Amino acid sequence: MDAQQIRQLKPKLDRYLKRFADCFARKDTHGHFPVYVEGQLSDLHRKSVEPIAKKAGVPVRTLQEFLSLLKWDEERMRDRLQTIVAAEHASPHAVGVIDETSFAKQGDKTPGVKRQYCGSTGKTENCIVTVHLAYAADGFHCLLDGELFLPQEWHEDRERCRRAGVPEEMVYRPKWKIALELLYRSRHNGVALRWLTFDEGYGGKPGFLAGLRERRQDFVGEVPSILPGWLDRPQVTRRPYRHRRGGRPRLRPRVTSGSPRARSVKKLLEQDPRLRDQPWKRYYLRDGTKGPMVWEAKHAWFYPKDEEGLPGPRLHLVIARNPLNPKEIKFFLGDAPSGTSVGTMLLVGFSRWHVERCFEDGKDELGMDHYEGRRYPGLKRHLILSAVSYLFLSRVQRELGEKNPGVDGGPGPRRRGCPDPVLVAGGPGLGPAPGGTRQGHPKHAARQRQGPPEPHEADPQKAPGIRHQTDPHRTLPVEHELAL
How many CB atoms lie within 10 A of CB 261? Predict the structure, then answer.
């Protein structure tokens, strides 16, 4: 970034922030908005309220009140951000990523704080957890939304919630239910996601997968190795079942007697010949920071066991193995047209690095984890303001044409800067599963929709060598104070 480009950022930022002007009813309240955003974009080491206020020459208490007490419409600001993304960064290959992050905290006053697993430090300690939805498409990514996870002990102590400004209608919800709410809000604001991906913490929740299908959202997400199910759908009966001890007959649907037992996806890989004996096929996905990213994969149709013990809908099961470390195996479930290639599903499943990059940039560059307030309204607004600041940085990076390493959004034949995944080694090509559409999915009942073409097989002599593979985690280049 040269000096002229840095000088141009201030008027560019002013024009960008004007798009959120109607979120404020009073001019004096609106005046604090650029102060906070510019503080997040500055070169301050600590980007909490106090250093931002002191740098801008405004009273610290005034900026604290802007976050927690003054009246302005933060939900409209979040909706405006999403409509900007929907209108100006739409892509037929857009991938949404669900993930959570954590902020270590001291004391017990921050809303939602408790001793729980803290992903930032990799251990159990005092922290808060927030659930987020990120957007990635064609070399661009940003955060669309985020919400606090309210632990059960906070939900049960409403007086504590009132002291922290947590509204009465905000109750304990599992993280996967928060994720579905974030997806619903983004759709309401026009954000169209071709795919959604997530980690095994969400993929292991049958209610979450069912919720995505109800919303007709295609997905490829990681699931735990202990997830049970069947490769062949067992028969289900509704006939009344009377226990030998007598009593009223059971009328609930159940798997018929003598049907195979559900087995975990790990056991199926080890024991079922259709997976055990299926040759691994090697896919080159993209270039990472330390060389080509190559994974081996197997595919089968799979019926996950639902919360009632019954077979769920037919889904893709994609099993990926790291050829450099064969003990590293990942299991993915996908709800996609039957013609979707394994390579495409691998690309989607390995797209979570986008949200990890957003978290890294948000914390390192914008102070996303520097919030020090004790009230929920302030935390909620801080998360939204951080997303607004991050969207500006992502737009500037895109406009200046700076190279974004690694996968550039969603898979598809027209992705920019990254070829489709290439089959570099393995047995015969794995064609589409029987049938032209996904069974039991209302979105595809009326017409057949074909997935992207199967990745082509490369010449083994010319296939890229396999070296150490990592996801790119290079922060956005905010090396200067951006003349703010």
Answer: 10
